[in-house]
Amino acid sequence: MSADQPLLEVENLTTTFSTDNGTLTAVDGIDFSVDTGETVCIVGESGSGKTVATESITRIINTPPGEIEGTVRYKGRDLLSLPESELRQIRGNDIAHIFQNPQEAMNHCYTVGWQIVEALQIHQDVSDDEARARAVDLMDRVGIANASSRFDDYPHEFSGGQKQRVMIAMALVGDPDLLIADEPTTALDVTVQAQILKLLDDLQEEFEMGILFVTHDLGVVAEIADRIVVMYAGKVMERGGVLDIFDHPGHPYTQQLLECLPEFGGTGGGISGTLPDPYDPPEGCRFAPRCEYAEEACRTGEQPEEVEVAPGQRVSCVHYGPGGNPSIVRNDEFGPIDGDGTAPTDGESEVGPADD
Amino acid sequence: MPRRNIEDRDDSRHIDRREWLSALGLAGAVTLAGCSGNGGGGSGSGGGNGSDGMNGSEGGSGSGGNQLELPDFPKFGVDPLYGRDVAHTLAERAFEQSEYDYSFDGDTMVNPDGDQVEINIYHSTGQETSQLTANFIAQELGQNLGINVIVEAIDGTRFNNEYWTAEPQGGTDTVDGEEVTWENPTPTNPGPQSVTSNQAWDMSIVFGLNTYPLNPLTNSAFFDGATAFYNPVGYYPQFDAQELFDQAQQASSVEELQQAFVDIFENIAYEQPYITLLFSDDLVGYNPELEGPIENFSNGWDLPAWYEGEPEVSGSYDTVTSARFTTLNPLFNTENGAGTAIARALDQGYTFDENQDVFPLLYDMSTEDGEVWTFDVRENLQFSEPYGQVTAEDFVYLIQELHQADWAPTAASTSWDGVTVEQTGEFQFEATLESPNILWPKTYDPLLYPIPKDLLQPYVEEEDVQGLEQDEELLELQFAGNLGAFELTAWNRGSGTEYTRNDEYYLRDIDEGPDLFSEGPYFESASISVVREQASRLGALRTGEADAAAIPPEQYESYQENENVDVLQVPTPYNTIISVNQRANGWSAGPGNLFQLVPFRQAMAAAISKQDLIQGVYRGLASPHFTWQPRWSQFYPSTDE
Amino acid sequence: MGFGRYVSARVLWAAVVSLIIVTVTFLLLSAAPNPAVRRAATQAALQGGDPAEAAERVRELRGLDEPLYVRYMDFLRNVYTLDWGWSVSTSMPVTEAVTNALYYTAQYSIPWTILTIILGPLVGVYSAANMYSWKDHAATGFAFFGYAIPNFFFGIILLLIFGVWLEWIPVIYKPEVPVFSVQNAIQLTLPVFVLVTGSIGAVMRVSRNESAEFQNADFMKTAKAKGVSPLRAYAYHVMRPTLVPLSTTLVGQLLALFLGASLLVEVVFGIPGLGRLTYNALIQQDTNLVLGTTLFFTFVAVIGNLIEDLVFTVLDPRISYDDR
Amino acid sequence: MATEKSERFDQVDWNDLSRSGRFDLSVNSLGMLLTTIPLALLGVYDWQFLGERTPTFEFIGLEQNLETLDFFFIFTLFLAFWYLVLPLYQNPRMTRYYWKEFRRNRPAVVSLGWLGVVFVGGIVGPLILNAPQQDLLIAYQPPVFTSVADTTPATCVGEVMNGRCYGTWQHPLGTTGGGKDVFTMIVYGMTISMQIGFITTTIVATIGITFGTLSAYSGGWVDEIMMRFVDIILSFPTFLMFLLILYIYGAGLGMFIVVFSLFAWGGTARYIRSKSLSISEEEFIKASRISGASTYQVIRGHVVPNAASSIITQLTLLIPGFLLAEAQLAFLGVGDSTVPSWGQLIATGRSDLSFAPWIVLAPGIVLFLTILAFNFLGDALLDALNPEAEAENG
């Protein structure tokens, strides 16, 4: 792997689903990349295609009905053109996933140990005893007390946070280089959230992983992200470093997202209107129907080309493009109240060994 | 214990008569004949055929109107004694006799309240022929007598238990002007007409009865005066039946007997104690390769001489039947089907050949005067080890210690009542009857199974009925030695019996009978499969899996055309009758039981077209039934044929 | 409550239920008139004996002269000593009659049960995996067909077609052929097919619906993300949770058919099994045998329900013994 | 009162009505009462003053005679009308919603159509068609458009060509061995099936609801014992019991219905109990303790409406079982062969299957379709009324 080559590079990724009612376009030609040791957050409302995008990377979504186009290069290999069997080698081994709802993400019929061992034994030829030892080790590492005795417990005997820890342990069995975390903290309560985030942060250093983190919670983003990709209705609206975007959100959508956060002086209210119909997306900018700055130009043609507004920060908005006037939307006074742009929460809480 | 089955329509029709017939020692007689579900039981001469009887229009004088005069031997239900007018005339005679005010309102028969007369008729449930017949009767009685008949189905066993029989009570009543006492009431004749069954019923075609064409004296059980042994319907004869039967008993030749019976049968034809309808033939389909079956109900008596193709030992003789066997214990079996199954492996004393003459098997019987009978037992009969040779002692022991003993309810008990038996030699014994009977063998009474004395002795000493019933050697016929054409190898309680050829069969060494006996039987093995579904039995016949099976009348033609099957029409002595309940719970249509009146029963008989019934339901494969004897019997009273 | 205590409580309850059911049967049968008594009276009358005395004799012989409670206590004792008396309709001890019949019933029940247990969930899961494809529609259609078509009706028609018209299979069941022989396999094909058709429908429907739910469950995504192959995913992650609700349907369905439709199938195909034995015992009012077979069927039903409960608790770790 | 109610007829909200807790004489109950009283009077009249076989409607010159079962059947029809059909009419919004949900399931719509045919046929058919009459002359006529060898029928009603007898529209589905018209018998069989279906489910629902609520309301050891009792009922080898009881005690249609009902209410009772318990947590206490409403009203007003959809679904799935059991028993010969049910028709025709297959096939297929339709319908109801309910009845 050459030094300048990103760990993961996604280009023009398009995912559609054919259903009885027509073709649904969930992800519509997006690009992004993740480097080793970096945390990239994909941000957007629910239904904006974040999850589908991440699940398209290793083709976890069912095809059919789904259909994935574009290229996904992982360490230079195009995952989308790999045969299923080779891709299976990568899943769980090089690229690991953790999901939103640990309760549902684990099979209630098997012990947590069994499920960790299963992941391990698929990729590595290890004996049952050895696998068990490794699994206990991992459970210990992710902060589960009495790991060896809890190995034989069933998921329903764990609390939510513990389950997510188990999920993380399961993800770590193959010493992955890329961890795709799909809203891993959404289902957890706030204190537990912080512990999990801290854990992920620690593990990222230890395992030198790239993390692709999906969330709609900008508070979380602020805490962990290096870079942000803002998605709306299957398209990328804006991307850039976390500080840049929090300080100078370029796209009206990003701005409105941030406005929702009380910490950022927002109203805490939602964005008016609803997501466009994914079967029949509007012409022009996807956000135009809900955008207070929308003009006629916004409503025609394709989604505008991304324009670099600051180093590393790109926005897809007519107003930044050729002939546009960024000042219509630019509002430099926008930013976190405390101004440092880092963690809105205190961030001091230790990652406890357990939260039960 | 005796059992009945109610499984198949054909067998079920025979339920009760078999049951009690067998009590008279009959079951064994038909066993050799049996090749099919129907077995084809009974005896008789020549095949009666439906159309013969149809022409019998002699005798009827008046054709309707009050002038109607009945001949000595009236034939109701065929012209001229059929139709609305005849029936109305007869019914009106009954109304006059009745103390209640029944009448016709136009075509409708009304009771004293002015409501239409409504009565019910029971038929066997699940039996199509029975149901069709019942509906036909209902239509005819409706049309010709204006009676509304409700058709109801009932399970044969249930009918037997709750309707047909009753708790014996006895009593006295005036019958034909005389005081009669029921001294020995039975469930089938529990007492005078006032003694009734649990459940009320009007008419029934659930059961038919035997007519005993070989020895009609047996019919005294039905009609011997009011206190006959078997009189579930509460019939009181209006003629002196008892005396006539006594006279017949005295007959010393067949001719005298025939003479004696003319009166009896004419009276029965006149009084219609049961409304006689028809005799249906058993239809048996055979593998056309088979040599031997005949259209005669001694069909099967010479089974050891039957063969397939060439007369050499080969193949298997497989038949299907509908009824499971309750027991194969020869002492207790009363079922026709099981009798057939026993007969494959164990012969009885004698059988009847195709001329209805006695053919000696185990023993020959002879008499001078009809009173003392000498039994000569063959000397080449062997039980299985350790029982050795069959001697007269075995038979005498069996009769005296079992059949005549009070404690053992064997199937043949009644046959030996009042008979004195004495051993007169190693292979000879004598039986002395209470009164002479030149036709004694034809009553089936002296039929015996050979049972080793040594086998019976322990049970006799203990008077152990249960032990006897459950004895495995008896149940599995393990003692049969050379006494049967085949050896029973398996009796699967659910699916029938299997046999292998008995190489030692004693019949090979006898002088009488067909020459073919000397090498018989001509099958390596035999089997009787119990198959409940008629469709399956017929299917097996069609595909050749079975060599013989009974065929229902509605399929007679299609099987006749089928080249894989030969259909034989085997006459039976079993009749189809309407039993009309003359007891106190018998007439639900109003006061006064009209069934008790002879003219009313005549009216009913005249209202039902026998010809239409035979054509419609039986496809012509039955013959009309006028008195208590089939037309082909030598005791049939008609003189003009 | 521990597993051991749970099981023993269940078994105890099962015993109580069996006892009650058999008692009800006993009472029902005692209320019916006994035809043997009447027949004996007829017989005696024929012999010129006293019918009443003969009837009394039979009652005595069969123990019917005892008061009901004495007979009941006798009966209970016999139930537990496995001496179920003599069956008058088959002329053998009841236990032997039941064992013999069971031999034939087992010959078609075992393949039928195995096929249902294996094929039902497999086809159901397969159907779910190919949801809304023609394969799914075909499988679902078949399930509904088998579920709705009366077994006996289907049986007689198949027998007519394959036995009588095409002559592919024998019309008459031959009990004497060896159990493991081609002949036996051929003659059992139709009964097993008819029964499997009848039982598989419900099993398929439930497993299809349940597994449809599970195959879209998050844990399937987890499994896929772990690199689990689709086959393994279905085998372990879909099948296993599907078995939990399925176990109820499966046992229930098999039991219902075993106790009902198998009787008709035995009648149609002429198999001398338990169903026919029971039926014949019933119509011949062979009290001992009816009680024996009822006892057996009740035993099977109760054991079946017990197994269902136990399997349920074993299969679904979330259920604790105290809940039930 | 009736007028007042009827003014706001289409605004009546069923749930509101049910929850009001005191609607002793709603339109439904009033209607029920007004229709049941004449029925009951007619029943008493028929029972007390008319002979067993005198036609009930003789006084107006009709030949129709009603038997006990018919009275029960009409009663259940009234019940179904006033408490099932009318509420749907009274609450068009809900009806429309259900219909929308239901309509998506096309097999279920077809099934409903078929059951409609059976229902209407079963009620109207016997009034239009004369009872099937035996006519031996026309036995074994083939169905229309088919032919059989002319030796099969006694005489051929239709054309005979090349030795084959062709069916006619006179007997669209052919005739039986007794010359009864198969089509007419199937129509009469619809009545029987509907009677079995309606009366049995009514009894099952009545016993089940009473037992279930009683059990839930009593609580404690009474509840325990009652539920154990249900356990036992559910453990019976049902088919064996049917056979036993029907064989020993006779197998008329009425007996069938009673025996079926006796062994079928367990599941309903169990369900109602659990439903009542969950409702009692909220409603029993509030409603019965505070407002002093009677237990009956709580059950009537809260438990039943809430559980109604599930009960209906459960009962829908029970009916095919009854029809099948009837057919099976008829096939075994345990049944009243004068009852013109489909099962009896199959049983009588089964021996003729090889040469007159229509006698078995026609009722067999009708039975099959009806069972299928009930299953489809039950499934659809399960989805439409109660999306979260799982297929427990499989």
UniProtKB/TrEMBL annotation, chain A:
Which InterPro entries does the entry link to? AAA+_ATPase, ABC_Ni/Peptide_Import, ABC_transporter-like_ATP-bd, ABC_transporter-like_CS, Oligopep_ABC_C, P-loop_NTPase
Q: Where is the composition biased (Acidic residues)?
A: 347-356
Give the molecular function GO annotations. ABC-type nickel transporter activity; ATP binding; ATP hydrolysis activity
Q: Key word Ion transport present in the record?
A: yes
**Which Pfam families does the record associate with it?**
ABC_tran, oligo_HPY
Give the catalytic activity.
Ni(2+)(out) + ATP + H2O = Ni(2+)(in) + ADP + phosphate + H(+)
Where does the ABC transporter domain lie?
8-258
A GO term (biological process) for this protein? Answer: peptide transport
How does it sit in the bilayer? Peripheral membrane protein
Q: What is its EC number?
A: 7.2.2.11
Checking Gene3D superfamilies in the record gives:
P-loop containing nucleotide triphosphate hydrolases
Q: Name one GO cellular component term.
A: plasma membrane
Q: Which PANTHER family match?
A: NICKEL ABC TRANSPORTER, ATP-BINDING PROTEIN, OLIGOPEPTIDE TRANSPORT ATP-BINDING PROTEIN APPD
Read off the NCBIfam families from this record. oligo_HPY
> What's the name of the protein?
Nickel import system ATP-binding protein NikD
- Organism of origin is Halorubrum sodomense
Q: What is the lineage of its organism?
A: Archaea, Methanobacteriati, Methanobacteriota, Stenosarchaea group, Halobacteria
UniProtKB/TrEMBL annotation, chain B:
Region annotated Disordered, chain positions: 42-72
Its lineage opens with:
Archaea, Methanobacteriati, Methanobacteriota, Stenosarchaea group, Halobacteria
Q: Provide ranges: composition bias, Gly residues.
A: 42-65
The UniProt entry, under Gene3D superfamilies, shows: Dipeptide-binding Protein, Domain 1 (3.90.76.10), Dipeptide-binding Protein, Domain 3 (3.10.105.10), Periplasmic binding protein-like II (3.40.190.10)
Looking up SUPFAM superfamilies in the UniProt record yields: Periplasmic binding protein-like II (SSF53850)
Protein family (similarity comment) = Belongs to the bacterial solute-binding protein 5 family.
Q: What is any Pfam family matched here? A: SBP_bac_5
Question: What are the UniProt keywords, alphabetically?
Answer: Signal, Transport
The biological processes this protein is annotated with in GO are: peptide transport
Q: Name one GO molecular function term.
A: peptide transmembrane transporter activity
Which residue ranges does the record assign to the Solute-binding protein family domain?
A: 367-637
Organism for this UniProt entry? Halorubrum sodomense
Q: Name it.
A: Extracellular solute-binding protein, family 5 Middle
The signal sequence is: none
Q: Does the keyword Lipid metabolism apply?
A: no
Automatic annotation (TrEMBL), chain C:
Q: What keywords is this UniProt entry annotated with?
A: Cell membrane, Membrane, Transmembrane, Transmembrane helix, Transport
Against PROSITE patterns, the record matches this protein to: ABC_TM1
Q: Which Pfam families match?
A: BPD_transp_1, BPD_transp_1_N
Primary site of residence? membrane
Residues covered by the ABC transmembrane type-1 domain: 102-308
Q: What does the sequence similarity comment in the record state about its family?
A: Belongs to the binding-protein-dependent transport system permease family.
Any one of the GO BP annotations: transmembrane transport
InterPro entries for the chain: BPD_transp_1_N, MetI-like, MetI-like_sf
- Kindly give the membrane topology term recorded for this protein: Multi-pass membrane protein
Q: What is the name of this protein?
A: Peptide/nickel transport system permease protein
A cellular component term from Gene Ontology for this protein is: plasma membrane
User: What are the subcellular locations of this protein?
Assistant: Cell membrane
Q: Does the keyword Manganese apply?
A: no
Q: Where are the transmembrane segments?
A: 12-32, 110-129, 141-165, 185-204, 254-275, 295-315
Q: Which domain of life is it from?
A: Archaea
TrEMBL record, chain D:
InterPro entries assigned:
BP-dependent_transpt_permease (IPR050366), MetI-like (IPR000515), MetI-like_sf (IPR035906), OppC_N (IPR025966)
Major localization listed first in the record, in broad terms: membrane
- Signal sequence interval, chain numbering: none
Annotated ABC transmembrane type-1 domain ranges read 190-378
SUPFAM superfamilies tied to this protein: MetI-like
The places in or outside the cell where this protein is found are: Cell membrane
What CDD domains does its record include?
Answer: TM_PBP2 (cd06261)
Q: Name one GO biological process term.
A: transmembrane transport
Q: Which residues cross the membrane?
A: 25-45, 71-89, 109-129, 192-217, 315-335, 355-377
Question: Per its UniProt entry, which superkingdom is the organism in?
Answer: Archaea
Question: How is this protein annotated for GO cellular component?
Answer: plasma membrane
Keywords (alphabetical) are: Cell membrane, Membrane, Transmembrane, Transmembrane helix, Transport
Topology class, membrane? Multi-pass membrane protein
Q: Which Gene3D superfamilies match?
A: MetI-like (1.10.3720.10)
Keyword match rRNA-binding:
no
Q: Which family does it belong to?
A: Belongs to the binding-protein-dependent transport system permease family.
PANTHER family referenced in this protein's UniProt entry, alphabetically: D,D-DIPEPTIDE TRANSPORT SYSTEM PERMEASE PROTEIN DDPC-RELATED, OLIGOPEPTIDE TRANSPORT SYSTEM PERMEASE PROTEIN APPC
Task: Kindly provide the name given to this protein in its UniProt entry.
Answer: Peptide/nickel transport system permease protein
**Organism listed in the record:** Halorubrum sodomense
